[in-house]
């Protein structure tokens, strides 16, 4: 006998976005695994829902230890519903480990679709939406963050990131360094909430704006690299410098940049020399 695992999307701001099906699933669940049980209680109270099953916490700190317990409940034939603070479980939130374990054990896994900060921000950004990549949160340490963005500087798809308000300026500055200050970007905050705001513009402008102080839940959408961009000597030297900062030896960085932008290695080498000694 096997139960069913249900990943249930919850509102990212406006409680009115909760579906009727979400209420039915929560009310009928044998177990509800919630990222924050207090937020779940507040949500169900506002929706007028009574959860008759067992409610347990399931967050980053106990996800690894609690997964076997929830899997056992599933294998006993119970219905386990996973909810996070906002949006879809497992998308930068707890849920992935349990989904993987349930699939491995042959347990049925389904979802109650709900609001998504990723898709909402993408749609509101005004940037291309035909192809995109979700990159989640950037590393907190500057070096690791720079290396991650360096890996993405030639990504041609629109990129979506999550960020904390107190790290927004540093992340936007790092993006401007890696992608160029003219790269089109949208910073979306407090989506579907009272003070929803979408700020659009080149990265350099958004860096200045963010220094005034930004609050709330933030999603950043950045346009992809232009495949037809003509690289100037300054651009080539900057690309080599970024690769070097990420730990690549200069000779290899020059070769990599030459291959990346389909230009002779000598051209890149001369650009690096000119950047080091502009007078020559």
Q: Can you tell me about this structure?
A:
The protein is of the alpha/beta class. It is built from 11 helices and 10 strands. Strands 3-2-4-1-5 form a 5-stranded parallel β-sheet, with helices on both faces. The longest helix has 13 residues, at 63-75. It is elongated, with a radius of gyration of 23 Å. It starts with a strand and ends with a helix.
Write the layout of secondary structure elements.
Layout: E1 4-8, H1 20-28, E2 31-34, H2 37-47, E3 54-57, H3 63-75, E4 79-83, H4 96-104, E5 108-112, H5 117-125, E6 132-137, H6 142-152, E7 158-163, H7 168-179, E8 184-189, E9 197-202, H8 203-210, E10 218-222, H9 233-245, H10 250-260, H11 265-276
Parallel strand pairs: 1-4, 1-5, 2-3, 2-4, 6-7
Antiparallel strand pairs: 7-10, 8-9, 8-10
